[in-house]
Design brief:
The chain is α/β, with parallel strands linked by helices and 918 residues long.
């Protein structure tokens, strides 16, 4: 059903979803907006000649009864951070080489859709609390990553449609929100110009932040991004759509962050994992896009595929204030109104699978922690909760602190901060306070609140505790500009919150070093210390290897904890400090009033400000422009490089018989490691510091690389040797085969010898055993980290047996040919009495993956007794079944390029002709 729209003296063609619904006897008003976007995608691409079956259209017409049915979607664009984007482009470079080796045309390996890559995940907080921190950190970033950045410059000229935003631009999701996202795209085709919804997948799990703008998008693994770039259909099952009715208003002193933490907690409890969440209700109209962004950003934390806010008047206002061209704003309004994608105040409420009611007036000042973002704690309960965990065993959610730990003394400490200051450290001391992450720095309301609190604190003579490492890492340079204009930057700097750069730092594990005196004191006395940050992730071992308790909250709460210097303060009864007159100063005295924040808000909503920030001529890119890089079609690999090593995923000749090999490998399998619930991708593939004593650290040392130059795991993701050794190597991972040990260690069976997981994987490979992972619920929560699947595959893991999986990691495992298997409801490896020492055999794998029944599993103990049970393959679509047969996406796409029939349908897409260059 194709219609046309008159727009600025031209006729724009579009896929008319209301007409399509009527033709099927449906009313489009009853459809959730996310379903409408998916329906438009199928309808338009069928009109463009893609293979879209009638059954797919029919499945969306009956979406509530068709959950799980395959949809062949085509995304409008891909957006990537450098952390996942570099491996994506590296894989494509390796694919070109593989195609050439097989006698094919390497130029055929190219991007079919626009790709934006924002270099934002390599910045580390090496310098802080100093005026020149931005310049010094940027210089150090280039010093560490010049080789990686030269590769990016090569890729920008080698692949069409790839646009790179250089270091110092901002964080991917905030840049996407403020500049990149068009909301409605347009392109010229043979039959005329077309308009259609912006629809994006991103190589970072927080891609749903752009849902706040009415853009449908979510995070995927890099391997899914590669397939979409190469013109493959992105197969996605018909989702369950949960409506979340927001009512009430956020009441001071609560802020948007507190509402987002409330929503995260309640939706996790409601069980929306893998669902699409769509917000509606009386409160939505009053939430500005910047507030919606904080809520939508947390979609991975509440487990949803997306947290969607349809296009409405707030969308148009935001597009205007962030400097989008007037023609674009008019197009968004005209197209969305014409095609039933604009939500009006009086529109009929769509039908949802179920509805969750949330009253925003119930939000209160909170922090989430100490290790999961859904574990919201009102601030007046944090001290009690912290102390209740202090001496509790780790297996019961505690910190297992030494009850006989030495108290501080004025004589302790070393070089760095004053010895007397280091000696004041205790359990619960806050040693890191970071205003960081696009989650909150995209919201000027909470950033201005932080600045106002800082100004009041400075006026009363307060200062941050000497042992706290403070930093401010905005997701956009616009933040610095409006803080400067509001006159709040001096106060933040007086408390140590100097801007240190523009990138994903502390929230992503790039917090940098602590002061040596602080680090020595923590280690010497076995202290359980804390971090306060305005991010979205606080998993164990993610923020800093020495910090066991990590709490996320609003930017002003970060400032408050920096002033207090400890996490176990009762703000109501205990002062933050004393003023010059010796009078106690309480947090309630410093907390800014709503009227104070709103008075400054217009300074952050200036169209000219955003136009200046995103003027390509104003990008701070001198070092980028002068960076020398190779050119040409194929990348010249350096055999001596330890950053860019050709990956092994395209070696060999694909034959479509991977399932048969998988079945053979799993006949006498051993357990490489066993885990409890909520194992995150950070646990599986850490992103921060590389400790020298780990297998990855030893590899780099053996290569002659000094620890100072290790960089982070994120920066070494293009070296599969490092990343394989990094898999399951998080310093806080808890393998149940060694319940009293933390870190990447396991037992090798049958001898029971303790060794690193990497060494055990090598041993099992030599002995001819495939390996498996045992896990509990929510396996693979967290970042869309494809190296968690890639590393597992390279270690020799052939299957993961878990009680349940998070969406992205499950798909990533399939994309690498690793079989995800679920225990039957009510069962699990612990419930079945398994220990992980058994030998496992799997029968009927090929039949079960193809949809015929379940896998039969037998676990044989050393004494000859067995445990027999069934497991269900978590291979959810026909396209995924084909991928498992091919051995994953890399082998599938290689098979297509060297002349074998492609196993997933390709499509002919084009890069829109109105895409602005940087």
């Amino acid at each position: 059903m194709i219609s046309s729209l008159s727009f600025r003296d031209r006729e724009l063609r579009y896929a008319d979803i209301a007409a399509l619904a009527r033709a099927h006897g449906r009313d489009i008003a009853a459809f959730p907006y996310v379903i409408r976007v998916l329906l438009e995608n199928l309808c338009r691409h069928r009109a463009w000649g893609a293979a879209v079956a009638d059954t797919e259209i029919q499945a969306l017409m009956n979406w509530r009864e068709s959950a799980g049915t395959d949809l062949s979607l085509r995304v409008a664009r891909v957006i990537l951070p450098d952390s996942s984007g570099l491996p994506v482009l590296q894989d494509l470079a390796a694919l070109r080489d593989a195609v050439a080796r097989h006698g094919g045309d390497p130029s055929a390996v190219d991007s079919h859709i626009p790709v934006d890559l924002i270099v934002d995940h390599s910045l580390q907080v090496d310098n802080w609390a100093r005026p020149d921190a931005v310049a010094r950190n940027l210089h150090r970033e280039y010093e560490r990553n010049a080789e990686r950045y030269r590769f990016l410059k090569w890729a920008q000229q080698a692949f069409r449609g790839v646009r790179v935003f250089p270091p110092g631009t901002g964080i991917i999701h905030q840049v996407n929100l403020e500049y990149v996202a068009d909301v409605v795209a347009s392109t010229q085709r043979e039959d005329g110009p077309w308009a259609y919804p912006d629809f994006v997948i991103g190589g970072d799990s927080h891609t749903p932040m752009v849902n706040s703008l009415g853009v449908l998008g979510w995070g995927v693994g890099g391997i899914d991004a590669e397939a979409s770039m190469l013109g493959k259909a992105y197969t996605f099952p018909v989702p369950e759509v949960v409506g979340v009715r927001l009512s009430g208003r956020i009441q001071a002193p609560a802020l948007t962050t507190d509402a987002a933490l409330l929503i995260t907690q309640l939706l996790r409890k409601a069980g929306v994992t893998g669902c699409m969440v769509e917000f509606f209700g009386p409160a939505v109209a009053h939430l500005a896009v910047a507030e919606r962004a904080t809520i939508a950003n947390m979609a991975p934390e509440y487990g949803a595929t997306c947290g969607f806010f349809p296009v409405d008047g707030q969308t148009l206002d935001y597009l205007s204030l962030t400097g989008r061209p007037q023609e674009r704003i008019e197009l968004v309004q005209a197209y969305c109104r014409a095609n039933s994608l604009y939500r009006g105040a009086d529109d009929v409420q769509p039908q949802y699978t179920r509805v969750v009611d949330i009253d925003l007036s119930q939000a209160m000042p909170s922090m989430a922690g100490p290790s999961r973002p859904q574990d919201r704690l009102p601030v007046d309960t944090i001290a009690t909760d912290f102390h209740s965990r202090l001496y509790r065993p780790r297996a019961k959610g505690g910190f297992a602190a030494d009850a006989d730990g030495a108290p501080g003394s004025a004589n302790s400490g070393s070089a760095g901060i004053a010895q007397s200051d280091a000696g004041q450290l205790q359990h619960g001391s806050v040693v890191l306070a970071a205003i960081t992450s696009c989650t909150n720095t995209s919201n000027p309301y909470v950033m201005l609140a932080a600045g106002l609190l800082a100004r009041k604190a400075v006026e009363r003579g307060l200062h941050s505790a000497a042992w706290v490492k403070t930093s401010l890492a905005p997701g956009s340079r616009a933040v610095t500009r409006y803080l400067d204009e509001a006159g709040l930057s001096p106060a933040l700097q007086a408390l140590g919150f100097h801007t240190i750069g523009y990138g994903c730092t502390t929230c992503g594990g790039k917090s940098g070093p602590l002061d040596p005196a602080v680090a020595d004191e923590i280690e010497r006395r076995g202290l359980v210390v804390a971090a306060a940050l305005s991010g979205n992730r606080n998993f164990e071992g993610r923020i800093h290897k020495m910090i066991r308790a990590n709490y996320i909250g609003s930017p002003p709460m970060v400032v408050a904890y920096a002033l207090a210097g400890r996490i176990d303060i009762d703000f109501e009864r205990e002062p933050l400090g004393t003023d010059a007159a010796g009078q106690p100063v309480y947090l309630r005295e410093l907390w800014p009033a709503t009227s104070e924040i709103e008075a400054l808000l217009p300074l952050a909503q200036q169209r000219a400000l955003f136009q200046a920030v995103y003027d390509p001529d104003n990008f701070d890119a001198e070092m980028w422009q002068t960076l020398q890089a190779p050119t040409g079609l194929c990348f010249p690999w350096d055999p001596d490089s330890h950053y860019l090593v050709e990956p092994p995923f395209f070696h060999g000749t694909p034959d479509g018989k991977a399932l048969a090999r998988l079945a053979t490998d799993l006949r006498e399998a051993r357990v490489l490691a066993a885990f409890g619930d909520s194992l995150t991708t950070d646990h599986i593939s850490p992103g921060g510091e590389i400790p020298a004593e780990t297998p990855a650290g030893q590899y780099l040392l053996d290569a002659g690389i000094a620890p100072r130059d290790f960089n982070s795991y994120v920066a070494r993701r293009c070296n599969f040797e490092v990343m394989t050794r990094a898999t399951f190597a998080n310093i806080r991972i808890k393998n149940s085969l060694l319940p009293e040990t933390e870190g990447g260690y396991t037992r090798h069976f049958p001898d029971g010898e303790q060794m690193t997981i990497f060494d055990a994987a090598l041993a099992y490979r030599r002995e001819g055993h495939g390996t498996i992972i045992l896990a509990g619920k929510e396996y693979g929560t967290g970042s869309s980290r494809d190296w968690a699947a890639k590393g597992s595959q390279l270690l020799g893991v052939r299957a993961v047996l878990a009680e349940s999986f998070e969406r992205i990691h499950r798909a990533n495992l399939v994309g690498l040919g690793v079989l995800p298997l679920a225990f039957l409801p009510g069962q699990g490896w612990r419930q079945l009495g398994l220990t992980g020492s058994e030998t496992f055999s799997f029968e009927r794998i090929e039949q079960a993956v193809e949809g015929d029944g379940q896998v039969q599993v037998r676990a044989r103990r050393d004494d000859g007794t067995t445990v027999d049970f069934l497991a269900v393959p978590q291979v959810l679509t026909e396209a995924e079944r084909r991928l498992m047969a091919d051995g994953g996406i890399p082998q599938s796409v290689l098979r297509g390029f060297i002349g074998e029939p492609a196993r997933a349908g390709a499509h002919d897409s084009s890069i829109p002709d109105d895409r602005d260059p940087t």
